[in-house]
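Q: what does this look like with 6-O-phosphono-alpha-D-glucopyranose bound?
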Amino acid sequence: MCGIVAYIGPREAYPILIKGLHRLEYRGYDSAGICLLNDDIRVFKCKGKVSDLEAFVEGKNISGNIGMAHTRWATHGEPNTINAHPHFSQNRTIALIHNGIIENYAVLRSELKNRGYQFTSDTDTEVLVHLIEDIMISEQVAVEEAVRVALNQVIGAYAIVILAKEFPDKIIAARKGSPMVIGIGKGEFFVASDATPLIEYTNNVVYLNDEEIAIIERGKELKIKTIKNQSHSPYIQKLSMSLNEIEKGGFEHFMLKEIYEQPRSIFDSMRGRLHIDQGIVTLGGIRDYEQKILNAKRIIIVACGTSWHAGLVGEYLIEDLARIPVEVEYSSEFRYRNPILNEDDVVIAISQSGETADTLAAIDLAKTKGATVLGICNVVGSSIARATHAGVYTHAGPEIGVASTKAFTAQVAVLTLLGLLLAQKKGTLPNSEFHKLLLELDSIPAKVEQILLLNEKIRDIATIYKDVKNSLYLGRGYNFPVALEGALKLKEISYVHAEGYPAAEMKHGPIALIDEHMPVVFIATRRGIYEKVISNIEEVKARKGKIIAIVTEGDESVKNLADHCIEIPDTEEMLIPLLATIPLQLLSYHIAVMRNCNVDQPRNLAKSVTVE
Ligand code: G6P
């Protein structure tokens, strides 16, 4: 969702800001804008891509060594040039960019209208900039104090950056609920929604906390205070991310690069945790909470999107391995449905970005009810990683493609480790079984490598089905979440309607859809509920549906029924999701490319959903 970048220092701001916006493009957006400040304060903005903004500013005065820029993902008001950020205050002396939602904007807007303020946009954001100006004028205070007073009147979520004509050496930034990081260079500062625009300039960063305001001044130390006016010393952290991790590295799309990174990312998610020689699993981040989890009456997993699918695999794994009851909830439902929670419950929040607004709210709710809350996050230092009591990073590396791929398999790998760790401590698994699983898990990266060799074959299958309008994905047991994830990948990036179902549920509805035009993707691996799935395949075949099947190497039974078989290496049943997901990612990718879709930035979607 909305991306923010700002700069103050000795260099020209424009190239840094534009490059920063390009780095944030992956978050999803529909318009872009920029503000530069020297003697004058200038705003340029337009609907469309960052490249449209670049074309728009050609020949205009874009000089200045202080500035800010924004990519907008529309919430209030359609995606057009007027609603794009930055927004000016009435006197055009203050400009503001915002990520989040001001929930009480309607009340504030009518109060400001009564005081003579005119609104040019339909956004909630414009309210804030007028309010700040109003406070500056009526209370005769400097911009940072006006921001502080204004933020005390605001309900909702925000990451904001403000530039004021009167203060040409100052950036004010603040956050609540939406991410913001400040990069500290030599005599220069950077502000951004995440670290990707900063890493080529500095490794030293400060993550702003909720209700904190940063006063960033040329030639001075960074100052941080809360909206209640308490000063805090900035906590400077070192980033370990490298530039080539966020570049395409020769691949046509980030998504393809990330699919191909999976042998490495799965390995990294287990590195230093899976100790084959000692026959143990360790998860340092939650060591202090092991006993709490082992004694938990229930584990409740909260997540959204692909992370929710990983949570479903986690449910099967933890119940199977450690015999602890697990429930999986959409964060957005959990937070509003008055769930029963108590101190014996352990809540696990799963999130790639660590910024998903609904998951953050679910965490807050669980904490207020006394539950222990753990996180499984990919982005180091993210809001969810900081809001949870403890957690495990997935270490998949930056994921730029909007459709999650390597983050999913890393989440599943971490959940497998968690299940194994709990099983060992609880003694719920015979030793021989435990060791067999450790060895098998260790072999997964090499097996993923083998599956990636099927790319050409999968592309050929995609050629046949690229024009379909609907599709069905079916699986049972551990392969049910895989079916859901396969269907989600296809609809996200190719806009083909796809539904995932437990294969046995087919008879309760989806079977009515099947005819000769309907491709049905079966995840029909030999382990698990294999024979029953074969019966489902027969049923689809009898109705002339087209069958694409993910099968175990050497399978003969499904081969006789399916139109296309993709063979994956054999593995233990509970590890199949780590393998069976890969061909489905590739299938979606190729179909989307053949349909000329924007694979890395699908329409309407955002990588990091920072509003509910
Ligand atoms: C968005 C992304 C998905 C992601 C979901 C949850 O919808 O496009 O890829 O699965 O948010 O995000 P999280 O960062 O919490 O895993």
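The radius of gyration is 25 Å. The pocket of 6-O-phosphono-alpha-D-glucopyranose is lined by residues 304-307, 351-353, 356, 359, 402-404, 605, 607-609 (CB under 6 Å).
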